Each structure stands twice: as structure tokens, then as C-alpha cells.
Amino acid sequence: MTPDDLLYTKQHEWIRVEGQTATEGITDFAQAALGDITFVELPALNKKLKQGDEAAQIESCKAAASVYAAVSGTVVAVNSALEEDPAAVNSDPYGEGWLFKIEADTPEETGSLLNAEQYNKHTEEA
Amino acid sequence: MIQKTVLDDLHTPLGGRMVDFSGWWLPISYAGVLAEHQSCRTSAAVFDTGHMGLFHIAGKDAAEWFSHIGTQDAPRQSIGRCRYGFLLNEEGGVLDDTVLVRLGAEDFVLVVNAGTADTDFAWIEARLQAPVQLENLSRAGWGKVDVQGPLSYGVLAPLCAPELGGLQYFTGIRTRCMDADCIITRTGYTGELGFEVLAPGATIRALFQQLVADDRVSPAGLGARDSLRLEMSYPLYGHELSTAFNPIEAGLGAFATDSHSYIGATALAEIRAAGPKRHLVAFTLDSRRKPAPGDAITVDGRTVGEVTSGTFLPSLACGGGLGYVDPSLASAGTELRVVCERGELVAHVKDKPLYASGTCRQKLNP
Q: Which residues of A41-78 are buried (b: 16+ CB within 10 A; e: fewer)?
């Protein structure tokens, strides 16, 4: 269930690194815990974020959550389709439910992220 | 200690996620709030409402006696009718909102909220006058399920006596369901065609298991119950109603008239004459965000009220809810701001109910 080709944070974000660009979303574990997602607020394009900064907000029928930047850099794309219909975050969290893309400016930061095996272990302990 | 309904062990195997609601262990959702909401609006949903208090009131003079207790004018309530109303304190504050079902000349059931059931019972019992008798059916092993949705009649009819088809909106009868005695009312908290079935635990369990095996029926939890009732702009005790509020400002004065002398009637007459200081309004947001109880309502930076309930409204695809505002701002179309944790949201006062396509008054075709 947890894709092997992604990196993860302990706050249940994932990123897919392609060159300098990191596509970020929330994990299947996170979407299941939140339940039906009803609202997504995405970061402004060109916004500069530091690793750990709040980048997006998500509301579900049950809860509200912040999404933090997994790496530092500049926001270069957002999945604005989610603003009208955020259900893809539930149905396809690693695909159509991606949130935003960051042009990473500190690539070595990925060293602090978890691989799939480590992330699975983390969720089992949670 | 947390209380459990007669259906308690059946929820988790159906995927129910259980939470503490007013001291009761109940499912917040099963498949998901949005899917359950949609099932209720388009097909049928069954809710475990066994947490609600069910009081049997009977015996000679029961109708006359109750008319001095609650706002329902029991002697003038036709047999077979249900009436919404209140238990009030002497100041006109709401102790509880209730539905009184008249099943016979001196045979009533009062349905009350879960969180207030024990204090309601003690309050009523303290005012009881022989030969009227009061029995707490909830403490005698009874349960209740609400079967709601446009297909609810089709789903329920084969399990019940044929007289189900004669029930009009806000009526109720003693009848048969699952080959056992029960009480069924054509009432609900969703705005859809629907029924509430009140019966001893074994009957409710058999009915619930039969219903959830039907593909047309989704078990639905407290999450969908809340979004469905907010689309209908129905109040929830503890949010829109409490001893801090009176029925007039809640816009429910029609259920607390001056036709008879109940506790709180004198205070309400004064409030009615002076005009309420605030009005309960329904509003929607220009956003999918959900407002929260306690969020300030402002106009030009000035606080003019407070949100009492808010959620995402699935049928309207936006946030919205209920709140009290200054009476001058209560008309439909008024633009307001809701100040939530994350900033200000544009809101508009709307006519109640927010969702106007409910099937609750639909004619049955048995």
C-alpha cells in the first residue's frame, strides 16, 4: 500500500522527487484517519517555504489538519482541481490527490525523511 | 460510566467508528460521512437513536396534566399526532426540546434528548400528579432506530403491519414490526421521508439487522446526522438551544404559543411582547470551509453574533450552519463575516431550511 518510490515524513506527508522538483501529498494512512475530505487550501504559487512550514490546510467531516513542507523551496505548482473537488485526496492520495510541487533548494534535506519501510514502521507504532 | 444502546455490539462489525456522544457510545460514521449523507438523501439510511430518552406518560388526566408541563397543548393534540415542543424553566429558557406522541386518549410518549434525559425525567417526575403515570422506557430496555430517506417506506413496509402506509408526516401509532409490538412515528431529523421505530431491545436488534442487510439501506452515524440536520436548519440541544436561549429567539415560537398555561409561559409572553434580543439564522459560506461553534459573526469588524453549529453541507457543496445574530441582521440575503481560526469567511443569511428538496412530507402510495 505504501509506494516504495516515495519519501515520507512522520507527519504523514509523502514526496516524489524528480530532479529538483518534489511533489507532495498526504499518505493513505493520513487520509483514512481524516475521513471524507471536504476542503483543501493550497499554498500560493511562488511561495517560499522552509522544511516544516505549514504549506496547506485540509478539513474533513471529522477534523482539520495542517500539511507541512517536507523540503524547503519554492511552490511551482498546485493541484487546484482539489479546491472544487477534494475527494481525490481520499480516493487516490499518491496520484490524483497530490497537493503541490516544490522546487527544492536544499536537496540534502531529503536525508531526514523516511523510506516506505521506515514509514510503515512509524505508522504501526502510532 | 459510558452508556450503550441495545445495538452497541452491532456497529463495529459494520465498520462503525465509535465515539462518546453525550455520555453514549455511538458510531460517528461507518463507510464515511459523505456517503451516508448521500444515501439518506437519495436512498435510505438507518440511525441508532437509542440514546434518546423515551418516556411513557399515561393514566387518567395525563393530557391535562402535561399541558401544565410542556409547551405542547396535549388535550388539543389529536390522537395519532406528534407535536414538537419544549420543556422550559420559569424564565422561558429551554430545558429540552421534545416530541410528544399522542397514541391514545391518555397514552403518550415523550421523546427527549440523550444528554438531558435524566434531568428531564427527574424534573417531570417531581411535578407528577396521581393518577398520571410516568415510565422511563429507555431504562426498561427499549431502543429506537430512525429509518430515513426517500426509499425508507419501501424498505420498512414489508417488515411492518400495513397501517404503516397510512402514516402522514408527524403522526404515530402503536403497531407491529418484525412480528412484535412497537411504536412507529413518521418523524425524523433529516428532512427526508422517514420513520422512527421505538420498541423493546430485541425488536430493535432484529429490525436493524434486517435493514442493514438490505442493499438500499446504509447504516449512518452521528456525522451524517449532523450534516443532514444542519442542511434542514434543525436545532440541536446544547448548541442552538439551552437554558441560555428561549424558543422565540430560536425562531421556534410557533411551538410555544400562549394557548395554555405551561411552565415558562409567563416569561415567554413577556419576551414575545418585548421582542427577542437576537435571532437564530441559517447561513452558508462562500467556501467549502466549515465554521465552528463559538466563531464570532461580524459586520464591518463589529461582533454581531456567534456561530452555534457549523459543518460542510454536502448537498450544497459549501460550509454553513446556524448562529445567533442581532435581530436587525436576520433577514435572508444579509452578508456577514464568520471569524474562524484561520481568518474571516464571507457568509450569507439564508431562508430556512438551507436544503429545500427534502421528501419528508411526500405522500405514501401503499
A: bbbeeebebebeeebbbbbbbbebbebbbbbbbebbeb
